[in-house]
Design brief:
26% helix; binds NADPH dihydro-nicotinamide-adenine-dinucleotide phosphate; Rossmann fold; alpha/beta; 2 domains; binds zinc ion; 11 helices
């Protein structure tokens, strides 16, 4: 079969591979909608996970089941399904401990385009099909559905990690597709003011539509200074980080109230360490907490998040700015993701 792969750090191209084999609990799928992710860019061009050779890229797919193992109960060939980017092994100790995304070791629930071939291929393999796949609700727009693979679960996980509560003032750093979903999630969770940080005009427009009350440009000075000014130097209750760089942590700590929480879902692609400012962290006693997390996967989670679309609580299809057709389209979609032109939010490939 044909697939679009990371050939090595900084290099991508089409390759031929054997069709994957189906174990007793697994499924083999063909993609019907695909999307590239900013994470693919970190992985290939920053070499953020280390060297990978001829590894098929992609971890965002809506698929059709073509084969299932003999122990799979709830899926059969022909079913249309949502495939989460993270596909844990549900019978591991990490999963029993509540961190299925790290099943088998740090980040090991992230298999596609990390530990095994991804979804940019004629066929791809899903482990633990009953635990990881979700049926695609009838009539769901494929553009919206495709955002369920990664953008919605990640953006909303940022909101969970920051523990947004009714009336909280929240900063969302980064309003690409992930941060936009954090804005929407913070609004659903009852945030009062939502300060959204970003500059691309169509992202700014959607951020306002999804619930941002204030827009901050990181190009016009330090984010923390701007936020402190807007809040009469009180700072905010919560910060969600969905963009920026290693320095963003320092800015986040500075603009947080004592007792505040930072939820990070940004993929730190470069650098050795992140800096936490000592004094603004209350010389170690400020009760300012930082959690960073990989999105949770799993069928229940996918079904619940899909219900936010079917009930009209979120409108992720509005983030899809570019559409390609046929598997070959992943090459152009990925290069668009790398170049990040001003009018891009998220590209999608329909097959
Ligand atoms: P985008 O590149 O589309 O968006 C990044 C955002 O950050 C933009 O709004 C950009 O502003 C803003 N930004 C850039 N530089 C700065 C800065 N110095 N300070 C503050 N803001 C800045 O990314 P995505 O939304 O696609 O993804 C966001 C992150 O989430 C990526 O790192 C991605 O790898 C990661 N990710 C993590 C996952 C997880 O499970 N934890 C899963 C999926 C993705 P501008 O408007 O100017 O472009
Ligand atoms: Zn991703």
């Amino acid at each position: 079969m044909k697939g679009y792969a990371m050939l090595g750090i900084g290099k991508t191209g089409w390759i031929e591979k054997e069709k994957p084999e189906c174990g007793p609990l697994d499924a083999i799928l063909r993609p019907i909608a695909l999307a590239p992710c900013t994470s693919d860019i970190h992985t290939v061009w920053a070499g953020a996970l280390g060297e990978r050779t001829d590894m098929i890229l992609g971890h965002e797919a809506i698929g059709e089941v073509v084969e299932v193992g003999n122990l799979v109960r709830d899926f059969k060939p022909g079913d249309k399904v949502i495939v989460p980017a993270i596909t844990p092994d549900w019978n591991t100790l990490e999963a029993q401990n509540g961190y299925a995304m790290h099943s088998g070791g740090m980040l090991s629930g992230w298999k596609f385009s990390n530990f095994k071939d991804g979804v940019f291929a004629e066929f791809f393999h899903v482990n633990d099909a009953d635990g990881n796949l979700a049926h695609l609700p009838d009539g769901m727009d494929l553009r919206a559905a495709c955002m369920l693979c990664d953008m919605i679960p990640t953006g909303l996980h940022g909101v969970e990690l920051a523990d947004v509560q009714f009336g909280d003032e929240v900063v969302v750093v980064g309003i690409g597709p992930v941060g936009l979903m954090s804005v929407a999630g913070a609004a659903i969770r009852g945030a009062s003011r939502i300060y959204a940080v970003g500059t691309r005009p169509n992202c700014v427009k959607l951020a306002k539509e999804f619930g941002a009350t204030d827009i901050i440009s990181y190009r016009e000075g330090a984010i923390d200074e701007q936020v402190l000014k807007l809040t009469d130097r009180r700072g905010v209750d919560k910060v969600i980080i969905a963009g920026g760089d290693n320095n963003t942590f320092a800015e986040a700590v500075r603009m947080l109230k004592p007792g505040g929480k930072i939820g990070n879902v940004n993929y730190l692609g470069e650098g050795e360490s992140v800096c936490i400012p000592r004094v603004e962290w209350g010389v170690g006693m400020g009760h300012k907490s930082i959690s960073g997390g990989l999105m949770p996967g799993g069928r229940l989670r996918m079904e619940k998040l899909a219900s936010l679309i079917t009930t009209g609580r979120i409108h992720p299809e509005k983030m899809v700015t570019h559409e390609f057709h046929g598997l070959e389209g992943v090459e152009q979609a990925l290069s668009l993701m790398k170049e990040k032109p001003k009018d891009l939010i998220k590209p999608i490939v329909l097959l």
